[in-house]
Design goal:
By secondary structure, the chain is of the alpha/beta class. The protein folds into two domains: about 25-195 and about 385-400, 3-Layer(aba) Sandwich (Rossmann fold), CATH 3.40.50; about 205-380, Rossmann fold. About 45% of the residues lie in helices and about 10% in strands. The protein has 15 helices and twelve strands. It has helices spanning about 35-50, 70, 75-100, 135-140, 150-165, 175-180, 205-215, 235-250, 265-275, 290-295, 310-320, 330-335, 350-365, 365-380, 385-400, and strands at about 25, 60, 105-110, 125-130, 165-170, 190, 225-230, 255-260, 280-285, 300-305, 325, 340-345. It has a six-stranded parallel beta sheet with strand order 2-1-3-4-5-6. A six-stranded parallel beta sheet has the order 9-8-7-10-11-12, with helices on both faces. Helix 11 (about 310-320) links the parallel strand 10 and strand 11 (about 325). Helix 7 (about 205-215) crosses helix 10, helix 8 (about 235-250) runs parallel beside helix 9 (about 265-275) and helix 8 (about 235-250) packs across helix 13. The relative contact order is 0.11.
Length: about 400
C-alpha cells in the first residue's frame, strides 16, 4: 500500500480520492473541540507514518460537528456547545464512522475519551490510545469525582468501548501501570509507546517565529515563567498563580506567560486577589513554530499539574533549551528524568523557592545554566514522533499478520 498523507489544510476524513487498498484509519477528536494535544497526536502520527512507513496508508478521520443546540439557542453558548458535543460523540460520529468501516484494514482511536466509537467498529481490528484515566475518574474515584447518574452511564459506555479494543497503547509506563492496577485491561493487550516532540521544538532560532514571539511578549526579560496547557482543574492553575505571587516578593520583575487561552472566572479572581494581573501575559493557542519561540523566550517552564498521562509541555520545553520545574509525579519523572527539577504537587512554598533559585541561577551562573539546558535537551531527544510512528507501525503489523 502506498502512503498518502492528507494536507494540513484539509479536515481529517476529507479524502480527495478513493483508495484501492486503504490501511489505517486514525480516528481523531472533533476539531471543533480544540483539544490541542489530541489534534497534535493524530496529525504527527499521520505525517510520520506517511514519511517513514510506505507499507502503511494512514488517514486521519473525523466528521464535521453537526450544530443543533448552538444554532437554535445562543443565550447559553457553553451549555449548548456541550450538548452538541455529546450528541456528536454519541450519535453522529458513530453513525458516520459506520460508513467508513469497509474502507480500512485497521482502526486507531487516538483519544481514549472517544472509545465509545469502538462499539461501532470491528473491535478485533481496533487500537485505542489511552493517554490517562481522567475520563474515568468518576467511576474509579466516585467520592472525589462526584458526577450525575447520566454522566456516569456515559462514562461506563466509553470505558466498555476501551475494554473491547484488541490493543491499547499508552504514552507512559505510569499510565499503563495505573490501568493495570485498576484491573481495567489485561496487561498483555497494552503497549507503551511514548509521545514525541514536535520538530519545531528546538533551541535553534527561527527568525520569523522569533519575531512573532517578540511582538507578543515585548522586550526580553530575564525572569519570565511559562505555563503551556489548558485551565482544567488538574492543571492546578491556582498553584501557578500563588507561585508567581510568592516569587515576585523576592524577584519583583518576575512575569508569567500562559499559553492556551484565558483563565476561568475563579482563576482570574484569584490573580486579582493576589495583585498579579498586570504581571501575566495570556496567549491563545499558538502556531507550533511560534510556540517553540515562546518556549525559547522563557526563563523557566512550570508544570504544576496534580495528574498527567505524559506531560508533553515538559518534553517540549526541554527540547527548546528551557529548564522545567514539574510536579513530583511518577509520570513526569519518567519523562523529565534527571534533567528537570521537581516539587511536591500543591506545595506552593516549595514551588516558589525552587523557581526563585533557578531564576537567580539563570542570571548569575551562566555555566550551571548551560549544563542544565544541555541535560534537558539530551533528555528530550529521547522523544520523537518518528520513533512513535515506528512503534505504532510494528503494532499495526502484528495485528495485520
Amino acid at each position: 500500500m502506498n502512503t498518502s498523507a492528507i494536507s494540513d489544510l484539509e479536515r481529517p476524513g476529507s479524502l480527495r480520492t478513493q483508495r484501492r487498498a486503504p490501511g489505517v484509519a486514525l480516528i481523531c477528536d472533533l476539531l471543533e473541540e480544540n483539544w490541542a494535544s489530541m489534534d497534535l497526536v493524530g496529525l504527527m502520527l499521520e505525517q510520520s507514518l506517511g514519511q517513514l512507513h510506505g507499507n502503511l496508508e494512514a488517514i486521519r478521520l473525523c466528521p464535521p460537528m453537526r450544530r443543533r443546540f448552538t444554532r437554535v439557542n445562543r443565550n447559553n453558548p457553553k451549555i449548548m456547545f456541550n450538548a452538541d458535543r455529546i450528541c456528536n460523540r454519541l450519535w453522529d460520529y458513530p453513525r458516520w464512522l459506520e460508513t467508513q468501516r469497509d474502507r480500512f484494514d485497521l482502526f486507531h482511536v487516538v483519544d481514549h475519551s472517544y472509545a465509545q466509537l469502538v462499539h461501532h467498529l470491528p473491535a478485533e481490528r481496533t487500537v485505542v490510545t489511552c493517554h490517562d484515566l481522567d475520563a474515568f475518574r468518576s467511576l474509579l474515584d466516585p467520592v472525589q469525582e462526584k458526577r450525575s447518574f447520566a454522566f456516569r452511564a456515559m462514562t461506563k459506555h466509553i470505558l466498555r468501548g476501551l475494554q473491547k479494543a484488541a490493543r491499547i497503547t499508552c504514552p507512559s509506563v505510569a499510565t499503563k501501570d495505573e490501568i493495570v492496577a485498576h484491573g481495567l485491561i489485561d496487561p498483555e493487550r497494552i503497549s507503551v509507546i511514548s509521545n514525541g516532540v514536535h520538530p519545531s521544538c528546538s533551541p535553534e532560532p527561527d527568525p520569523a517565529a522569533d519575531r512573532e514571539a517578540d511582538r507578543l511578549l515585548g522586550a526580553h526579560r530575564p525572569h519570565d515563567l511559562l505555563h503551556v496547557g489548558t485551565t482544567i482543574p488538574r492543571k492546578r492553575i491556582d498553584v501557578l498563580l500563588e507561585t508567581l505571587a510568592a516569587v515576585r516578593r523576592q524577584i519583583p520583575d518576575a512575569r508569567l506567560i500562559r499559553v492556551g487561552g484565558t483563565f476561568t472566572a475563579d482563576q482570574a479572581a484569584l490573580a486579582r486577589r493576589l495583585g498579579i494581573t498586570d504581571s501575566i501575559v495570556v496567549l491563545p493557542r499558538l502556531d507550533r513554530k511560534v510556540l517553540a519561540a515562546v518556549y525559547r523566550r522563557a526563563s523557566l517552564s512550570l508544570l504544576p499539574s496534580e495528574r498527567e498521562g505524559f506531560g508533553l509541555p515538559l518534553a517540549e520545553a526541554m527540547a527548546c533549551g528551557t529548564p522545567v520545574i514539574a510536579s513530583d509525579l511518577r509520570v513526569l519523572r519518567e519523562v523529565g528524568g534527571g534533567a528537570a527539577e521537581y516539587c511536591r504537587a500543591g506545595n506552593i512554598a516549595e514551588w516558589a523557592a525552587t523557581a526563585a533559585r533557578l531564576l537567580i541561577e539563570h542570571v548569575s551562573d551562566s555555566e550551571a545554566w548551560r549544563r542544565r539546558r544541555e541535560r534537558g535537551m539530551r533528555q528530550a531527544s529521547r522523544f520523537t514522533w518518528a520513533e512513535h510512528a515506528r512503534r505504532m507501525a510494528m503494532l499495526y503489523g502484528e495485528m495485520l499478520a
